[in-house]
Amino acid sequence: MTKASDRSKKMRAMFGGVDPAELAKEPAPTQVGQSASKRVSAGAIKSMRNTFSNVEKENEELRHLLESGDVARELDPKRLEPSFVADRMVVEVDADFEALKQSIEANGQQVPILVRPHPSYDGHYQIAFGHRRWRACQELGRPVHGIIKQLTDEELLIAQGQENHERKNLSFIETALFAYRLSSDFPQTIISKALGKDATTVSKLLRLMGQLPAEFVRMIGPAPRIGRPRWEELASHFVDGSLPEGVHGPVHELMERPNYKAANSDDRFMMVFDLVGQLVRQISSSPTEAEVSKTTTATSSAGKLWIGDKKVLMKDKGTTLSFQVDTRKQPELAAFLKERLPALLEEFEEISEKEDAQ
Fold first, then answer.
1. Pfam families recorded for this chain (predicted)?
2. Residue 124: which of 133, 115, 132 has the closest Cα?
3. Which of 110, 199, 243, 357 has the fewest Cβ atoms within 10 Å of its own Cβ atom?
């Protein structure tokens, strides 16, 4: 019997009434010939080691549960309710969840979930961790193996957060949203324990969610491949929880399109991210109202005006005023104006002197 199969059988034995003392016995290591090891690729060896490590980890968790006197029971999925604070986003297309469901259908539920007696309804239970396993069993129409423990709200949240951290980490935005949901009822010390993150990181998560509307985040989804920098860049475009005028409408329209709804959450994020960036750049490159007003005034001041049935062209540029006469078409007019201009200047000076004397 191989070490891997021994570990798997030990893990399954925990639900079959096997003496826990037997679990402490380690099988003798199997000798592997040098020629056989040469035929195994490095990638295959690494994969096998990871598999053994995961099985051993679950084995240790289950051994601990048995030693503490907690035994898995079969529970009716209909009598279970999720944690009072959601951590994961439920998405329509989730390949990992489908793989988990297929595994449970083929091999059974290898690892129990953790629940507590429901604080409000007798005979019902509230889940601390194992929501995905519960959902899978519920959809498969089979009972759920679960450990029942008395837990306070804080103990439930810490168990919930630690399980997520040790097994399949929440995406960055799921973690931020979870922290934000907790912040309405719990201090940051509890949030730090639940997330397994320091106070500085928790503060950054809460600050980010203070900029992004939760519904906006939900319409994008968990986006597991999108990290903190891009979420923070997207959040920087929000003012008081809203996108700028001229950006909100097109983004909302994008989120209603069939191709957007059919895309996975990573692609959804990039669709929104690219559109917001494009619209913001357009707005920043467009002149402001004040600039438009100033330009309009300058253009108006620099306007052209024909006088005397298009005989004289007056140009007013704001700082200079000029008159033009086409001497080829209007030679007499040009000569007349040239002759009368000195007299006009004298008349202007006389008027100015009288106004100054008054």
1. ParB_N (PF02195), RepB (PF07506)
2. 115
3. 357
